[in-house]
Amino acid sequence: MESKQYLLIPGPTPVPDSVRQAEAQQMIGHRSSDFTKIFGEVQDGLKQIYHTKNPVFIIPSSGTGGMEAAIVNTLSPGDKILLCNIGDFGKRWGEMAKAYGIVVQEIKKAPGQVIDPKEVAAALDADKNKEIKAVLFQQNETSTGALNPVKEIGEIVAKSHAISIVDSISGMLTAPMKVDEWGLDIVISGSQKAYMIPPGLAFVSVGPRVWPLYEKSKCPKYYFDFKQFKKFDEKKQTPTTTPVSLIYALQAALRLILAEGIENGYKRHAAMASFVRSEIRKWGLKLMAEDKAASMSVTAIWPPEGIDPEAMRKELKSKYNVVVAGGQGELNGKIFRIGHMGGVTMDDLKFALDALKKVLAGMGYKFPEGVA
């Protein structure tokens, strides 16, 4: 028999059996009344997860598609944004904006650090001519395992002349995200993370402050046009062919998530993150993000001196069928990351950490006295 693979990367995450079985259902028409009943259920579930009354558009794309949709529906070439860049996905957003002729003003932090809300407030206060149209930032920076203070940043932006655009792709369901309460304008999440379904869907909430910018936006758009998504969302459909199987999976996953309770899900992810960080510290290894900025989704770790993290990951996979992630961008080949979101369990983490300990010992790492 095949042994279980322990998939501990920050997406795609393990898919529960009930969700995989739901996805395997026979096709039905994506414009049929049977399908719109399912679509209506997932619309309601997404609003509960987002803590919003705003529409949450379901876009057939990766999370990056949702990020691009946020740009092209609100901005025009020559517009300025304030980009809060704390890692590789912040960098990606800047590159995307520049591809559309957007002027990028950047607050950049070293890997593992997060944005100080006071810096955002200062940048907006200094913008006397109100040139900054939007403030873009990640909730959770997947590449470094760091969690931005979304509430504080969001509340500052909500009182300003700019809108907030938040990438919650790897953060949604793992840490609080109160869209309406915090005054967030656009929030993006993705199916392959804590939603526990395969890649292929982006979810984008759109608040009322977005639509005046939409009307002025001159960025080219067709597939990602918010007005089309709004029109079809009201009919419980998507503008183009809906990936029916993924909606089946989403329906099943949302039922699991809501049965557990959203707040309980936050607590479970916090407990898993705390467990991993505590164990890694006992081994004498260094974590990339400080506790107050630690991700609930993924933990980024510096390997012991002299040990190649890529060789370590290869050994972990070949001997124990445990898969952890490497570094991204400038951190490629320098760190490794353990994902703990969605369908990952505490037992999965215990097995994986025990295997990791054995691999490190086999590669010559000397653990502190008292570590078994």
Keywords:
five-stranded mixed beta sheet, seven-stranded mixed beta sheet, 372 residues, globular, 41% helix, alpha/beta, 14 strands, single chain, 2 domains, Aspartate Aminotransferase, domain 1, Aspartate Aminotransferase, domain 2, 13 helices
Question: How is this structure best described in words?
Answer:
41% of the residues lie in helices and 17% in strands. It has 372 residues and is an alpha/beta fold. Strands 2-10-9-8-5-3-4 form a seven-stranded mixed beta sheet, sandwiched between helices. Strands 1-13-14-12-11 form a five-stranded mixed beta sheet. Strand 6 and strand 7 (146-147) form a beta hairpin.
Mind sketching the topology for me?
Layout (H helix, E strand, L loop, with lengths): L5 E3 L8 H7 L9 H18 L5 E5 L2 H10 L7 E6 L2 H12 L3 E6 L8 H10 L5 E7 L1 E2 L4 E2 L2 H9 L4 E5 L11 H4 L3 E5 L10 E6 L3 H7 L9 H8 L10 H17 L1 H21 L3 E2 L10 E5 L6 H12 L1 E5 L9 E4 L6 H17 L10
Parallel strand pairs: 1-13, 3-4, 3-5, 5-8, 8-9
Antiparallel strand pairs: 2-10, 6-7, 9-10, 11-12, 12-14, 13-14
Helix pairs in contact: 1-10, 2-10, 5-6, 10-11, 12-13
